[in-house]
Amino acid sequence: MLKVQSSQFILSKEKDTSGDDACDFAILDNSVLVAVLCDGVGSARKGGAAARQSVKFFIDHFKTRPKNWDITQSLTLFTQHINRLLFKESMTQYEQIELLTTLCVAVIEGDTLYTMNLGDSRIYLLDKEQNLKQLSEDHIMDEDNLSHVLTQACGLTDHVEPVITSSSIEKGDTLVLCSDGLTALMNDEEIKESLIKGFGSKLIIQSAAKGHKDNERDDISMQIFRLEELDERHAIKNLDLLIPLTLKEGDVFDGYELKSSMMEHGRIWKVEKEGKTYVMKFPLATAVDDPIALEEFVKEAWYAKQVSHKAFGDAWVPHDRSARYYLMELVEGINLAEYVKNRPLTIDSAIALAKFLHKAEAHLLHLGLVHGDIKPENIIVYNKEDEVGVDFKMVDFGSVVEVFEVNSRAGTPSYLAPERFAGGAINETTEIFSIGVTLYWALTGKFPYGEIEPFQTPSFKQAKSALTFNKNIPEWLNSIIMRSIAVDAHDRYSHYSEFFYELKAPDKVKPYYPKDLTFIEREPLLFYKIGFFILLVTNVITFVYYN
After folding, report:
1. Is residue 453 scored above 90 in pLDDT?
2. Residue 361, SS3 per DSSP
3. Distance CA 361, CA 471 (A)
4. pLDDT for 330-381, tens place per residue?
5. What is the chain's alpha carbon radius of gyration, rounded to the nearest angstrom?
6. Euclidean distance between the first and final Cα of the chain, in Å?
7. Which CATH number fits the domain 3-234, given the four candidates 3.60.40.10, 1.10.260.40, 1.10.3720.10, 3.10.400.10?
8. Count of CB atoms within 10 A of residue 112's CB?
9. What are residue 430's phi and psi, to 5 degrees?
10. Where are the domains of the chain?
């Protein structure tokens, strides 16, 4: 996971104005950093507008770029696009160049830094050995008296061929983007010394501007990114590893012999090595030509080896693999869906299951993750060693995603919260909904909102109480389940901790009633008691009146 310590600051040359500089950055999927800095050309009337438009354009387009586009392709196409837009807008509105800006963009993916610049804004890299290197080229006239004239800029011509450079980076390096407003006041050695001292963008800019009147200097902008962690998944993805197109019993990979396929698609196998049995998972064969499928598998393997809780089976990725796969411990048992076919789930087991699911999800949340596909088929039931009763394990790392992911396809329709069908983020309360549906189904054999097919747009009407189908469910447990599966997210538990607290304290659980439930449905006993009292009073009054 990519982690950076960042700072950015813009100081306009005139107070109470936005100036002509613009900058912004985004970290996408916790793995890609996109930083953009633009200095609107002062001689152009709309230089500031061009700078702000360019920054927004790059950030927005990187957020939505096709996943099969590499960084070089994306930088090239996006640069050409915004350049053409600015040029055409200038010609259409002003019949001359007025939307003109410098442009420098830096993108970090894995252990590689990609850079591109047009104009004289600069990109520097201070490595962990404290060597400062300028990675950009100043596109200015050679003559001293024309050094302020740009030979390249964004919006200057109809077409541009940007030069994309790439370089290796390491944890501890520092990336810097700045406008010429800073380099006009500080030389490289002064910038280096400020970075080594750990100064942020605002302090460096204010120090540089000190002693210079506002109207006698240019706008100054600066971005600093100190790299605390790099995303290792990208390096893993680029390993030259075999993805076997076909697999059959008896094939051997690094000493692991394939014994029997565990899934219809034939990519998960029981394997044996030195008398021990494991589970080996390969990517789908389509990953050979599909970078998105490969990326998804790499992410799955990465998440699997991060998980260390006993609620999950152990998973690991051998260092010296000859093929693309990862290994998991073999958990002997049957999934919950098969288990309840042969025997009902006892109330004690249901409570244990609820607590187990909380612990599993709480561990994932500690890692910034959610399971994404909680359902009986992904829960293994097995007998406790030397104990009475059953225990559980979660399986299927293929659905695990970062919490608050909005584009996730993870999940099985019948277990998804209503907001997931509308593109809502996956979070604690949507996972609690899936836990609630799983408990409801395991105890009643029914889905609270009916079985939902893929691509169906369901209508969530009020679910019947789980007690309707299983009278053995305690009132307090029924309230927890029904609150967990509330259609309105505001009526659900917001956090796993709230859900777990009530599981541990049944006497603290308040009865749950849907909003549209009538009084007689909410409190039938109280309703009839009041009715009886009213009837009694009426009869007494009638008796007294007529006697």
Report:
1. no
2. helix
3. 29
4. 988 999 999 998 777 899 999 999 999 999 999 999 988 999 999 999 999 9
5. 31
6. 87
7. 3.60.40.10
8. 16
9. -70, -35
10. 3-234, 239-329, 340-516
Q: Whole-angstrom Cα distance, residue 23 to residue 286? A: 39
3-state secondary structure of 514: coil
pTM, rounded to two decimals: 0.67
pLDDT at 543: 67
Alpha-carbon span 392 to 312, nearest angstrom = 9
- Taking a C-beta distance cutoff of 8 angstroms, is the pair 197, 242 a contact? no
CB proximity list for 186: less than 8 A, separation 6 or greater: 194, 204, 208
Q: 54 CB contacts (<8 Å, ≥6 apart)?
A: 22, 36, 38, 82, 86, 101, 103, 154
Token code pair at residue 460: 């969530």
Residue 55 has phi, psi (to 5 degrees) of -60, -50
Report which secondary-structure segment, H or E, holds 117: strand 112-118
Beta bridge mates, 106: 35, 115
What tokens does 328 get?
A: 């998991």
- Binned at pLDDT 50, 70 and 90, residue 212 comes out as confident
What are the structure tokens assigned to 357, written together? 């699911």
Q: In CATH, what number does 239-329 get?
A: 3.30.200.20
- Could you tell me the pLDDT band of residue 519, with boundaries at 50, 70 and 90? very low
